[in-house]
Amino acid sequence: MENNTNPPVGKSQREELTTDQQIRRRTIKAFALFSVASLVPYGIWKWIGSRPKVNGLPDVFREVLRANEEVNDVFFSHANLAPTFPVEQAARQVRVNGRVGLQPGASPDDWQLRVEQPSANGPGRQLTLALDDIKALPKHDLVFNFKCVEGWSQIQHWSGARFSDFVAKYQLGTRNDQPNPVTKDWFRYVGLETPDGKYYVGLDIESALHPQTLLAYEMNGQPLTDLHGAPLRLMIPVKYGVKSLKCIGRIFFADERPRDFWHRQGYDYDLAL
Amino acid sequence: MQPTMKRIVENKHPLAIRWFHWVNFPLLAVMIWSGLLIYWAYHPYKIQVADAVLVKFFPDGFFQALNLRRRLAEGMAWHFVFMWLFTINGVLYVAYTLFSGEWRHLVPNRHSFRDAWLVVLHDLGIRRQAPEALKYNAAQKIAYSAVILMGLGSLLTGLAIYKPTQQAWLTTLLGGYESARLIHFALTIGYVLFFVVHIMQVIRAGWNNFRSMVAGFDVIPYGK
């Protein structure tokens, strides 16, 4: 198509116009197409806005976030650990961000932990535990970079029992109610709630059983304060901080996703790091 | 020379390049906008010399005017949906430039950095002559290659803050979680600066140049 020939001397007006016309026609055509094409992103924007909301997000976004989780399962391993730090680096002033479900001033003597284990062949089991039952499990220290979904982070020092030790000791989390997890017959989710049920989180069982997931009863070597979730809270480094529920009142196992406070407000359910 | 003495140069910008370029525009816009929704939830960055804050990212009025406040969940959802399209488009662009040979026009060579300085002097009206250039001048080569490296940087720092446990090695390599977030943010400011200069240069270069990015063909006078 490229026209490399020199114009003949005295080239007629008509031929010159033809080049101009050609430019004109092709320009109009290209910009017409460009305008139509630019309606596509606008249409996508409008379409997303018109989708029904599922827990505050357009349903298509929920589907993609679910797909992202599946991609994570392909590429990532639940065996990976969050980096840990020397205890001297841990913050003295530990940030407090959430107070939902806390009842400061409530007597710790009244506190007890309710654990519910459903069963396929019966009514299931219910346990009521005291803080000493948790303290009887091997104690682990964890100094890691706590990450808030808001974007800030802080190196913090927590101590407590591994959630996996707790589950093993009380034969929890398996559908067949057997202590031996060789069958891998795990429930898919764990739900945790504050005593008043006002704050609640759901976790996939793999993250709950992660070796760094603690039922924590100490911060910087001291018993938890009310605002940090006394007497017992979850500390789960493989998730954003919103999943580290304070003042655990109830723990239960389920195959359906337990309700999750921030998921209902439009956040991703998984929030895995 | 009469204004009608001109000819059409076909395919100055191949169709694929034009697609990648224009598809990237709304995608990057969505990534920056949703990134701001996320950034609002924790927005500590500023440029400070001694005690004087020179630039605050961003003043409250900025967040307010653009309605960026209290939309973290929404921002995260948009960001983690559109990250796929932004990445795929970028990867396809790089792959295309490699396989088509177009990279030869884009990658700077050993003369480019000196020439780019001359281009800047020329564009600022300080130097009369611009250095010889084929499709892109030296400054363009550097800018267009740098913005691709920045894209790679956004991808890596983004991964480092998206999955800092799973990709702990990457997060550590980038100086830690806070550092990776700061770099991720700084790169975004870089895109905005790139955009401002890019728009100014497009206006300066004129209609023919702009049209070639849409229609593909260029129009030049005879004899050139």
User: Which consecutive residue ranges of chain B, at least 5 long each, have pLDDT under 50?
Assistant: none
* Computed structural class of chain A: alpha+beta
Instruction: Find the count of extended strands of chain A (DSSP E, 2+ residues).
Output: 12
The percent range for helix content of chain B is 55-70%
Pairing-aware structural class of the strands and helices of chain B? mainly alpha
Which ranges of chain A are low-confidence, i.e. pLDDT below 50, for 5 or more consecutive residues?
1-5
- Approximately what portion of the residues of chain A adopt beta-strand conformation? 15-25%
Characterization of this structure:
The complex is a heterodimer of chains A (273) and B (224). Chain A has 273 residues and is α+β, with helices and mostly antiparallel strands. Chain A has five helices and twelve strands. A five-stranded mixed β-sheet of chain A has the order 4-3-12-7-8. In chain A, strands 5, 6, 9, 10 and 11 form a five-stranded antiparallel β-sheet that branches. Chain B is mainly alpha-helical. Chain B has one domain: Transmembrane di-heme cytochromes, Chain C (Fumarate Reductase Cytochrome B subunit, Up-down Bundle), CATH 1.20.950.20. Chain B contains nine helices and four strands, in the order βαββααααααααβ. Chain B has helices at residues 15-40, 60-65, 72-100, 103-106, 112-123, 138-162, 168-173, 177-205, 207-215, and strands at 6-9, 46-49, 52-56, 218-221. The longest helix of chain B is centred in the middle third of the chain and has 29 residues, at 72-100. Chains A and B meet through helix 1, strand 2 and helix 2 of A and strand 1, helix 1, helix 3, helix 7 and helix 8 of B.
SSE inventory with pairings:
The complex is a heterodimer of chains A (273) and B (224).
Chain A: H1 13-50, E1 53-54, E2 57-58, H2 59-75, E3 113-119, E4 122-129, H3 131-135, E5 139-147, E6 153-162, H4 163-169, E7 189-193, E8 200-204, H5 205-208, E9 214-219, E10 222-223, E11 233-235, E12 250-254
Parallel strand pairs in A: 3-12
Antiparallel strand pairs in A: 1-2, 3-4, 5-6, 6-9, 7-8, 7-12, 9-10, 9-11
Chain B: E1 6-9, H1 15-40, E2 46-49, E3 52-56, H2 60-65, H3 72-100, H4 103-106, H5 112-123, H6 138-162, H7 168-173, H8 177-205, H9 207-215, E4 218-221
Antiparallel strand pairs in B: 1-4, 2-3
